[in-house]
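Schema walk-through. Below, the input block comes first and the output block second. Nothing else is stored per chain. Lengths vary across the set, and this one has 192 residues.
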Amino acid sequence: QREAAALAARADSAAAALQRTTGIGRSAGVAESRPVNPAAESTTEVESHPLVRRAAAHHDMLVAATARQSRDLGESPQVAVVMRRERPLEGAEFDESLGLRLTVPIGRTAESHVNRLEGSAAAVAASRALARQRDEVETSIRLARHALEVAVSGALLAGQQRAALARAATGVDVAYREGDVTFLEVQRARAG
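--- output ---
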């Protein structure tokens, strides 16, 4: 029972290390079972990680800003007919008017080109940062899983070693009762 408790404690500490490293909690039975498709599960874990979600949101925001900037700064001259319906005082009759709006962007070509390039560079940098963040999280998850497997294997090995030592101690006790070994040899066998 103590062996099972020690094994469970080591597995829990490895699971806590996994949680600290990756931010993903261990579900029940993770150490005992393997996923059918580890690549798909790993992709889901990586994409749902808070650091990756934050980097993806930043990337998406910059891409949208670059698209909006390209659309807004690259405007062509516009002519619009505007109809207004206003009431000067509450309860008064509505005044209807017709207007003409003319928009001519002057001198914005160089500005829009520079702004577009800056926005594109920021979006590319965010894309690289997102890929780097995904790689780092995926590596952390792999390392944490490996640490968990090593801890579980170590705990199983320690349990087997303890059982072997218990069998050896039992054999030495039997030999002592039969007079084949001295008390000093029994003490040495129990000590180590």
